[in-house]
Design brief:
By secondary structure, the chain is mainly α. The protein has helices at about 1-15, 25-45, 55-70, 70-90, 100-140, 160-170, and strands at about 140-145, 150-155. It has a two-stranded antiparallel sheet with strand order 1-2. α2 (about 25-45) runs antiparallel to α3, α3 packs antiparallel against α4 (about 70-90) and α3 (about 55-70) packs parallel to α5. It is elongated and about 80 Å long.
Length: about 170
């Protein structure tokens, strides 16, 4: 019930673009609930059982962490959830025969947090570069860095500056 309520609140907040979702409070609550879910899974079930909600929900929490605060903390969050799950398994049923599964889950969670964060960073960077390029095109193809003295230089977005200089040299332009 707690996970369902949190998921509903989180989904509505994401839809409204509330800042707390990607802030420390949202991330901490998300990871704490993920840790609680994997720990409770080991306590509630005695022995092996099919894949459960407690194996999928924490993965999404870890991925959201990576997206919100970056790949390194996404990795750390994933490893933390994996270690909590392993500790809960060890304390209830014992780790014997479960260590490979626990290690694999920890690696999966950590890698998912890192990859999600890395992809989000790449998308943010690409989006900013596209916005910068579009701003340059709106200004008539001239970029103004805002520095004094102002350096204004025509920009051909289709070709690298080195190629532009080579063309200018061939034409005899200074």
């Amino acid at each position: 019930v707690v996970l369902a309520v949190w998921s509903a609140l989180w989904t509505v907040a994401v839809g409204r673009r509330d800042r707390w979702v990607a802030g420390p409070a949202g991330v901490v609550v998300d990871l704490a609930l993920a840790c609680a879910a994997v720990a409770a899974d080991s306590v509630v079930y005695d022995g092996g059982h099919p894949q459960s909600f407690a194996s999928a929900w924490p993965l999404l929490a870890v991925m959201a962490t990576g997206i919100a605060i970056g790949p390194t903390l996404g990795l750390l969050g994933g490893v933390t959830v994996g270690v909590v799950g392993g500790a809960a398994t060890a304390s209830t049923t014992g780790i014997e025969g479960e260590w490979l599964s626990t290690l694999g889950t920890t690696v999966l969670l950590g890698a998912s947090g890192w990859v999600s964060g890395w992809v989000a960073e790449q998308l943010r960077t690409t989006s900013q570069e596209a916005a910068d390029a579009q701003a340059g095109e709106v200004g008539g193809g001239v970029l103004d860095s805002g520095a004094a003295p102002v350096l204004r230089e025509p920009v051909d977005r289709g070709r690298p500056r080195v190629v532009q200089r080579a063309d200018e040299h061939r034409r005899g332009d200074p």
